[in-house]
Batch of 2 targets.
Target 1
Amino acid sequence: MPHVHRRPKMSISRCALLCLSALLALSSTASAAENGFEYGSGLRGPAEWGGFCANGTKQSPINVVIADTVLDKSLRDRLDTEYGKCTYAVIINDKSAHHLDVEGDGSFGNLTLNGVKYELVKFHFHSPSEHTIDGVSFDLEMHLFHKSADGKFAVIAIFFNESHDDDAESPFLKQVFSWLPNITQPDTNVTTMAPITLESLPLQGSYAQYSGSLTTPPCTEGVSWVVMLNETQKMSCPQFGAYQKVFPEANNRPVQNTRCRSVTRFEHA
Ligand SMILES: [Zn+2]
């Protein structure tokens, strides 16, 4: 008796669905890779971003209205961070992301927030700021980007303003911005070969917490945001000038509707 190989049966509709979803997956990957995203009012600007960016209900950034925030006495007076020193960092002029990105040779350390431990994997900058406080914008907003073991995101936002004060130079920014002349061209990077320390970052005092999203496509939601409300950090005019020389274009997504989301606040005594 000849051995008959049975071909697995697949209905036409199932095949059609599979083919269709494969095609859709291909086209969405291709369009994301080809088109990317931009800022401003053009065809790829924030108003045209799709997916969660268009349909989400918990999007970021937001305007934090202090009077509408809810004081939460269970919040700690200092964020629970353990930031160590990386042995070196890679500073990237990321053309497709439209920002200056800093990645360590491993982890920069950890943040524990609401009982979840996150690893600080990189940080980057937006100018002008993405979040606003009572409608006020800032010159620069740094995002410390953390990821948990199960893939959740937490971001700490810190604001900087240009200052003419004699002591305005930011020692923290100096570690990064001194490398700007090495990455004037898009899609270039430089390895610092010197540790970047996060010790001088102001992670104590008042801050707000809320649930939002990534501020760039795909605008994934479920991101735990910590927006520092303590004293705005200073940066000197030459420091901000050096940044703007390499990144002259605005890269801030406009503020999104809070849709009655609660924003909690720790108020430093
Ligand atoms: Zn960001």
Note: The pocket of zinc ion is lined by residues 124, 126, 143, 215 (CB under 6 Å).
Target 2
Amino acid sequence: MVLSMDRWIGKVAVVTGASSGIGAAIAERLVKEGLKVAGLARRDDRLEDLAKKLSSQKGIFLPIKTDISKESDILNAFKKIKEQLGPIHILVNNAGIVPPGSNILEGNIDAWTNIFEVNVIGLCIATREAIKDMKANNVNGHIIHINSILGHQVIQFKNMSLYPATKFAVTALAETLRLELGNQKSKIKITNVSPGLVDTEIIGAAKESPAFKEIIANQAILFPEDIADGVVYALSTPPHVQIQELTIRPVTEPKF
Ligand SMILES: NC(=O)c1ccc[n+]([C@@H]2O[C@H](COP(=O)([O-])OP(=O)(O)OC[C@H]3O[C@@H](n4cnc5c(N)ncnc54)[C@H](OP(=O)(O)O)[C@@H]3O)[C@@H](O)[C@H]2O)c1
């Protein structure tokens, strides 16, 4: 199998949650590969900083302030992308949260609704809009969901209770989409990328804990660039090859 990013050079990729962590690393890598990347997130100051950082690279970075939990924001973002960059070829559904108060025993419905709106419903809306545009332009594009190992198994993590449920939903949604696309004989690819623990802001206050310091000392953690490498691998496969699931874990498993 010959791996190459050549067919994506100059093409349009959308990365949700591009203001930090894994999304920022994926956006940066795709711009360096020569793609036109629209980065969506709420913190537009972070997106603007990334745009400045990438201004002399091969590709283009277009920051678009978007709340992925709001359909109107997503529709406006996709309109802007089509007008300013052109037909969409790649969508990386990366935006995700673990909001405080989402536990089952003490949680509240606002937190529960919010985590599903961002991690699941927003992903569905962005996917629908991207595929609509790919079909309108006869683009055999690629949809990538940034899932989690917690989308395949529920393991002990503090304050995580609804998070695995949203990621299990993402696993099911990737396969449902694969069936829907297959029924239409579409050549659009769908890849589910499932990382283990990655050093990003989503870890939150736990970063200050002794357990986390031990994880770092034991190198039991991945970095956002490792996941960007995985995304580029899936994108680099020839048109007839589809990476269905890519699980990326640190060699030493973290202990909490
Ligand atoms: N870190 C890990 O250990 C790990 C492991 C497996 C999977 N993941 C997954 O990786 C993805 C990225 O997370 P990360 O680890 O890189 O954490 P992160 O640094 O906190 O990044 C999360 C991103 O999602 C965006 N986001 C959150 N709510 C949003 C909203 N309402 N609208 C638009 N964007 C929103 C954030 O942007 P704004 O706040 O600026 O909106 C940010 O860019 C998530 O789906 C997460 O579940 C992470």
Note: The CA atoms of residues 79 and 129 lie 10 Å apart.
